[in-house]
Design brief:
This protein has helices at residues 64-74, 87-94; strands spanning 22-29, 32-40, 45-51, 57-63, 77-86. With 95 residues, the chain is of the alpha+beta class. The protein has one domain (22-94): SH3 type barrels, CATH 2.30.30. It has a five-stranded antiparallel sheet. The termini are far apart. 25% of the residues are buried.
Length: 95
């Protein structure tokens, strides 16, 4: 499970006015990584940064079901942060 029940990831659109989005969950599979900032538990859709190859990242919506399938098929590292981390800081760490 990528987003645990005790994770306090906020609802979609709740960070629209933020200058630097806060990341609550990161997922890394090989060189690809996803930094999740918001989540809709009913639709199982997250919003965040996805970078599938170096320099090819963008903000967008992410299917949690598809991401979980990728982790199951290829393995991966999932981190649920106890305290959110600014997106700009984590992007630098993963790149």
């Amino acid at each position: 499970m990528i987003i645990s029940n005790d994770n306090k990831i906020p609802a979609l659109y709740s960070q629209e006015e933020a200058k630097d989005l806060l990341v609550y969950v990161s997922v890394k599979i090989g060189q690809a990584f996803w930094l999740l900032t918001e989540f809709d538990p009913e639709k199982k859709i997250a919003f965040g940064w996805a970078e599938l190859f170096a320099g090819g990242g963008e903000l967008g919506y992410i299917s949690i079901k598809e991401l979980e399938e990728a982790v199951d098929n290829y393995g991966g590292q999932i981190v649920n942060y106890k305290e959110p981390i600014p997106l700009s800081k984590l992007k630098r760490k993963f790149q």
